[in-house]
């Protein structure tokens, strides 16, 4: 295998090895060597063998397999991997005698590996082309939140990743997820369901920076014969540090930006007659806004006691249990002095529009004064959970 000979004044190279074997290049002279008039090699007869695995022509290579290149003599100078999908990276080892890929391959893809070695000042090249397995089922990221073009988010913003199917091997998938902020801060992933994982930092993000998310998912064995279909990425812009603190008993909230007070806003909170009409205390995040928003009483039908249906303007949501900051011109007289709402923070039309206009998803709103604590998974109230408890939800703990 790899036999080199001179026959009737011609240079003959035998390259052998079938599917599943390695591609081997045996060279008995330097690139560009000639053949003398007497049929002798113009250079010496030392041999350098470069082996690439998978071998040329191999099919059905598992996406989580490894590409390996070895040089018997000399040193590897350069190895490139060309193919559609994710860029395949690798690292040299053994004094540049070996090279191994450092990430998985994209399923159902054709690859060509080109390796160059150098020995005694001469450069030699060998290639191998192969294809990866196309699995019956793949795993993709269906959504990353936040994901709105041009959006700036608050310093409490989580990164919420939702997959297009339940994940069997959560640890393998979580290892592919990387979060890189301009201003580093400790953080951790927590699985909240089989198809959703959330990243939260230990302390708030530093404001006015860029955070990059990347998932090297292509080719990862996600369990049950399912492989990652492709990589995914997102760029997140952290805006100003906007913190709202409110006292439910005191009927007022104060809004600050980057440590500077912007405004104190009188409000009327939940009347507390039932649990659902009690505004929750705790650390919330602003989730979304709408103008207008139609609000209805949960679990009640028209004619039932306590039923209501109300259209409100400049509504900013801060939980999944129907809590908003919104315009309530009908209760201006109670704002700042009494709690008469169904659980929302009712504010004047002027203050509602002002708050609505400056709001960023992920801004923090801390409320105190009620006997109902917001649950950590009610909306984006993840800061209700200690960081030590939060990271226990990681598959890599």
Automatic annotation (TrEMBL):
CDD domains: LDT_IgD_like_2 (cd13432), YkuD_like (cd16913)
Pfam families: Big_10, YkuD
Domain L,D-TPase catalytic: 242-368
Pathway assigned to this chain's UniProt record: Cell wall biogenesis; peptidoglycan biosynthesis
Keyword Cell wall biogenesis/degradation: yes
Active-site residues annotated for this sequence: 326, 344
Keywords assigned by UniProt, alphabetized: Acyltransferase, Cell shape, Cell wall biogenesis/degradation, Peptidoglycan synthesis, Transferase
PANTHER family (UniProt xref): L,D-TRANSPEPTIDASE, L,D-TRANSPEPTIDASE YCIB-RELATED
Name the record gives this protein: Ig-like domain-containing protein
Source organism per UniProt: Actinomadura meridiana
């Amino acid at each position: 295998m790899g036999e080199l000979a001179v026959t009737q004044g011609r240079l003959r190279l035998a390259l052998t090895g079938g599917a599943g074997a390695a591609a081997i290049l045996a060279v008995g002279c330097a690139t560009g060597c000639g053949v003398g008039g007497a049929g002798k090699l113009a250079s010496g007869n030392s041999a350098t063998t470069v082996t690439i695995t998978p071998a040329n022509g191999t099919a059905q290579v598992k996406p989580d397999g490894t590409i390996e290149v070895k040089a018997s003599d000399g040193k590897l100078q350069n190895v490139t991997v060309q193919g559609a999908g994710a860029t395949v990276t690798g690292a040299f080892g053994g004094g540049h005698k070996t090279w191994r890929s450092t990430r998985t391959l994209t399923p159902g893809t054709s690859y060509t590996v080109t390796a160059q070695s150098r020995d005694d000042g001469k450069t030699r090249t060998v290639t191998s082309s192969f294809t990866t397995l196309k699995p019956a089922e793949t795993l993709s990221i269906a959504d990353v939140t936040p994901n709105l073009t041009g959006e700036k988010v608050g310093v409490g913003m989580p990164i919420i990743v939702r997959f297009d199917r339940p994940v069997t091997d959560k640890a393998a998938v979580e290892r592919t997820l990387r979060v890189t902020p301009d201003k580093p801060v400790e953080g951790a992933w927590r699985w909240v369901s089989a198809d959703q994982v959330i990243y939260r930092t230990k302390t708030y993000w530093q404001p006015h920076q860029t955070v990059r998310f990347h998932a090297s998912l292509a080719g990862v064995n996600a369990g049950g014969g399912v492989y990652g279909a492709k990589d995914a990425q997102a760029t997140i812009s952290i805006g100003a540090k906007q913190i709202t603190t409110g006292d439910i008993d005191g009927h007022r909230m104060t809004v600050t930006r980057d440590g500077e007070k912007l405004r104190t806003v009188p409000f009327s909170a939940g009347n507390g007659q039932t649990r659902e009409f009690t505004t929750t205390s705790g650390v919330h995040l602003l989730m979304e806004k709408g103008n207008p928003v139609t609000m209805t009483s949960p679990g009640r039908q028209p004619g039932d006691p306590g039923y209501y249906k109300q259209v409100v303007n400049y509504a900013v949501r801060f939980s999944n249990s129907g809590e908003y900051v919104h315009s309530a011109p009908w209760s201006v007289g109670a704002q700042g002095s009494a709690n008469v709402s169904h659980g929302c923070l009712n504010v004047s039309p002027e203050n509602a529009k002002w708050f609505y206009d400056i709001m960023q998803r992920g801004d923090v709103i801390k409320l105190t004064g009620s006997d109902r604590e917001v649950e950590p998974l009610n909306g984006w109230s993840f800061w209700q959970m200690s960081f030590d408890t939060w990271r226990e939800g990681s598959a890599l703990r």
